[in-house]
Amino acid sequence: MIAPAHPSLLMWVGIAALVVWRLVRRFRRLVGRQRLSKVRPWFTVVLFPALLLLLLAASLARPVSAATLAGGVAIGVGLAVFSFRRTVFEVTPAGLYYTPHAHVGIGLSVLFTLRIVYRLVQAGTLSAVYGPTGPASAEAFGSSPLTLAIFGMLAGYYTAYAIGLLRWRAQAEHAPRPPEAT
């Protein structure tokens, strides 16, 4: 007879399935032509800076962590400018469309995902040795300078790219449109 799975194992499997589903959705959004949403860029422009401010406030006691977070944001903004300049934009009668330069966005998402997976594996092995207050605690998880730098790059990239999309939308909506072919 097969023993039933432990409830915590089922929870981790459920969380893993949710994370994989969100990553697949994120990667699909980074590749191919997309209609420009009126809400999604605003959501990004509000959410990521709010998260950055929370992380910055939490890391002010550790200047190295705060500096790596800020450095990551600066690198992310630079990558967003690079990627945005290679984005293809289209104004059609059906709406506004863009095809993102996917390499940078996918690369940053993969880098952040790998870092989180590494930290989770590290937390699992170190918490078995040191207990709940050791180097793998929740506080240590969010204060790692490398993790903060990578998150800063990701947040800076998505925020700057979303600002670029909002600026392009404003320009495209105020520009005269060519007459439709009849």
Count of strand segments: 3
Poorly predicted tracts of residues? none
Distance between the termini: 72 Å
Outline, from the CA principal axes?
Answer: globular
The radius of gyration computed from the alpha-carbon positions, rounded to a whole number of angstroms, is 20 Å
Estimate the mean pLDDT confidence.
81
Q: Spatial order of the strands in the main sheet?
A: 1-3-2
Class from secondary-structure proportions:
mainly alpha
Beta-strand share of residues: 5-15%
Share of residues in helices: over 70%
Number of domains: 1
N-to-C SSE series?
A: HEHHEEHHH
Explained architecture:
It is built from six helices and three strands; from the N terminus they run αβααββααα. It is mainly alpha-helical. It has one domain. A three-stranded antiparallel sheet has the order 1-3-2, with no helix packed on it. Strand 2 (88-92) and strand 3 form a beta hairpin. Helix 1 (7-30) packs antiparallel against helix 4 (102-130), helix 2 (40-59) packs antiparallel against helix 3 and helix 3 (63-85) runs parallel beside helix 6 (145-174). It is globular, with a radius of gyration of 20 Å.
Quick structural gist:
With 182 residues, the protein is mostly helical. The chain is 73% helix and 7% strand. Strands 1-3-2 form a 3-stranded antiparallel sheet, with no helix packed on it.
Secondary structure elements and pairings:
Elements: H1 7-30, E1 34-35, H2 40-59, H3 63-85, E2 88-92, E3 95-99, H4 102-130, H5 138-143, H6 145-174
Helix pairs in contact: 1-4, 2-3, 2-6, 3-6, 4-6
